Amino acid sequence: MGTGRLSIDLSAIVSNWKALASLARTEAAPVVKADAYGLGVGPVARALAEAGARRFFVAYAEEGFALRRALGPGPEILVLGGHMEGDARLLAECGLTPMLNSVEQLTRHLESMPEQPFGLQLDTGMNRLGFEWAEWAAVAEIALSQAPVLLMSHLACADEPDHPMNPYQLDLFRQMTDGLNVPRSLSATGGILLGPDYHFDLVRPGIGLYGGLPFEHAQPVVALDLPVIQVRELQEGEVAGYGNTWQAQRPSRLATVAAGYADGLLRSLSHRLTLWNGDKPCPAVGRVSMDLLIVDVTDLDGTPEALTILGPKQGIDRLGESAGTIGYEVLTSLGSRYARAYRG
Ligand SMILES: *Cc1c(COP(=O)(O)O)cnc(C)c1O
């Protein structure tokens, strides 16, 4: 076995989904964009569908195609990017529901496929996707006459519970949608944790399903072990890795392990990364290279066959912090070279 072993716990994903749905006391539609945050949209979505999920979100129509193939007919697939030029055939053939986000998209949709269900996105201040106040005022009547399946908006600062942007966006969303008698959705994982005012009829958890912050009580989902390819003894003063950026301060034993920045272990982790042998930390030394890491195992008794980079001692958020990023980016960067094993 040459490559790292990435273990993905599907039953933990299902538990996290159930926990978030019961917190929200409403329907929780899993967000499985970007190949289910890098974990594999087929196995992840099938596990959630078997557990009872009826609606799923993806970012693009192309992702909806892959998801429809994985799920078969039945579950509703909503496309956050809406209806882009050239999407009509894919939307029709795969039975996808675009979340229209501009007057241009609304026009395109109603002209090209008026029978195809759609939802609408409203911008409440994030300025990323959706109808703004004045646009919405202009088209709401026409749009609502075509029976949209969902009105949604997205929070910009939901991972900061005390941020004044949260109540501001909530208030605006209410003003734009109160009394319209269409199901509503405002919250992703962070918004679910802000409390019942933010839940409406549907929530859209992504990262929380996959074990990431801000869902602190998430069950961990991924584990990643990297096999040791070679071990060597260094004398004090010898150097290791590209650019000679690390020098042994004592007689040292170094293990070379099988993963690098081509596997999502960002080069910015150089000199900031720790791997684990059970509960014993082993610092990576020198620069992260494309396929390899060098790890100081001097303080271990023996030499293990593999070292753990994601596990009980270090989850996606801690690794993300070391890399100067967030758990989301760690997950979606994991790459395709690992041997993946799905549990549960
Ligand atoms: C990605 C995304 C989500 C899921 O967000 P998480 O923070 O991962 O829970 C929900 N809604 C929209 C519009 C998104 O873009």
UniProtKB/TrEMBL annotation:
It catalyses: L-alanine = D-alanine. Keywords: Isomerase, Pyridoxal phosphate. The modification N6-(pyridoxal phosphate)lysine is found at residue 33. Substrate binds at residues 128, 290. Its cofactor is pyridoxal 5'-phosphate. The active site is at 33 (proton acceptor), 242 (proton acceptor). PANTHER family: ALANINE RACEMASE, ALANINE RACEMASE, CATABOLIC-RELATED. Belongs to the alanine racemase family. This is Alanine racemase. It comes from Rubellimicrobium aerolatum. The lineage of its organism: Bacteria, Pseudomonadati, Pseudomonadota, Alphaproteobacteria, Rhodobacterales. The gene is alr.
